[in-house]
Design goal:
Blueprint: H1 19-26, E1 31-35, E2 41-42, E3 57-61, E4 65-74, E5 81-88, E6 93-98, E7 111-118, E8 124-130, H2 136-143
Antiparallel strand pairs: 1-2, 1-3, 4-5, 4-7, 5-6, 7-8
């Protein structure tokens, strides 16, 4: 893998509904919202559950693991970058970037793990990188 030039991420728009999300990103964690009324997890963060319209929602820390649902490599951009929809293990899908990899190695269904990059103004922005493959010994150990 060759070193990739860093993409400049725009500053996110922060409001009262998303401020806890961005504060958690700055602290190095990914927070999601779950509805206490219907039990559904949702993304993007909002005060009202999009499934049942309940206002009884809570924040929780996501695993930071997921799979690539779809992706596209912007090869004509300077610098080139890979944008993707990643479905988290918690069930929600978010648009993000795939970083720290050869773009030709990205695949639908590939396991990815959370990382962060800084926006132009210094806000931590969630991105994902391919999850390290398990060694043959670890695979055997995980099956037993």
């Amino acid at each position: 893998m060759t070193s990739q030039p860093q993409h400049i991420y725009p500053d996110p728009l922060v409001n009262s509904e998303t401020a806890p999300y961005w504060q958690a990103c700055q602290a190095g964690t990914l927070q999601l919202k779950r509805c206490n009324a219907c039990g559904q997890t949702h993304f993007y963060p909002r005060a009202v559950c999009p499934f049942c319209l309940s206002g009884d929602t809570v924040w929780f820390t996501a695993s930071g693991l997921g799979r690539v649902y779809a992706f596209s490599v912007m090869r004509r951009a300077e610098p080139p970058y890979a944008i993707a929809y990643v479905t988290l293990d918690e069930g929600v899908t978010l648009m993000t970037h795939i970083v720290d990899c050869a773009f030709d190695g990205i695949a639908i269904g590939q396991r990815v793990a959370l990382a962060f990059r800084q926006s132009a103004g210094g806000q931590a922005v969630p991105v994902f990188r391919p999850q390290a493959r398990l060694s043959a010994e670890a695979l055997v150990g995980s099956l037993s």
